[in-house]
Amino acid sequence: MFSVQQEGYVAILALHRPPANALASSVLKELSERLDALKEDEQVRVIVLHGEGRFFSAGADIKEFTAIEASEQAAELARAGQQVMEKIEQFPKPIIAAIHGAALGGGLELAMSCHLRIVAENAKLGLPELQLGIIPGFAGTQRLLRHVGMAKALEMMWTSEPITGTEAVQWGLANKAVPEEQLLDTAKQLAQKIAQKSPISVQAVLKLVNEARTKTFHECVEKEAQLFGQVFVTEDAKEGISAFIEKRTPQFRGK
């Protein structure tokens, strides 16, 4: 279901499960395993996640829902999905979602767990679960609220109406909208820019931003000072400062 192609320090992680790239439990399990492998690969500094075919992902596998008979079964399905989304959000390497076609339901929940989102202008993004008489279960209610605010999040969920990629940028749900034919190249270019930085400093920033979700401002500021000290004495920091003084491009090695 997933394939990995590497370009420099960037891994292109592609989902191929036609026709809609539905997020069945088996898909989420394989995604988690792929991420575990990429985490340990020192030659991978940034990941671009995209869907092959017509969609990024049109949602969860609805056929799986028909086998669920008890409330606790459904709750466990939700928790399993939430764990994968949390793994993505807490992943120590940047993950960029390249979204075309549609990111709906579980597909949007997957995209929102990524650190950055590049979207096709005509893509459709939404959480239409209420149309089925259910609610989002992979932390979609919380991440959509964080990105677009309460009023817009409630509107999107209560009406089940998606927004376009262009609108997603306007609402803060995506970083950039481009014509669909430019989508993957744009995401790769962004990934390559990030991959040129020291992976140590990239990871430190990511850790601090994630900690801001659960800790106070002053706790995070103190953590920033600690990490500043740790990063400052790395070989990459010495290389970066020397390169600046010598007016050359730094060559970071992750040490």
TrEMBL record:
Q: Which Pfam families does the entry link to?
A: ECH_1
Q: Name one GO molecular function term.
A: enoyl-CoA hydratase activity
Q: Which domain of life is it from?
A: Bacteria
From its record, what is one biological process in GO terms?
fatty acid beta-oxidation
- Family annotation (PROSITE patterns): ENOYL_COA_HYDRATASE
> Sorted alphabetically, which CDD domains does this protein's record hold?
crotonase-like (cd06558)
Q: Where does the signal peptide begin and end?
A: none
The enzyme's first-digit EC class, named in words, is: lyase
- Answer whether the UniProt record assigns the keyword Coiled coil to this protein: no
What keywords sit in the KW lines?
Answer: Lyase
Enzyme nomenclature, EC number: 4.2.1.17
Q: Which family does it belong to?
A: Belongs to the enoyl-CoA hydratase/isomerase family.
Q: Return the NCBIfam families for the record.
A: PRK07658.1 (NF005803)
* Name under which the protein is recorded: Putative enoyl-CoA hydratase echA8
Organism of origin = Anoxybacillus thermarum
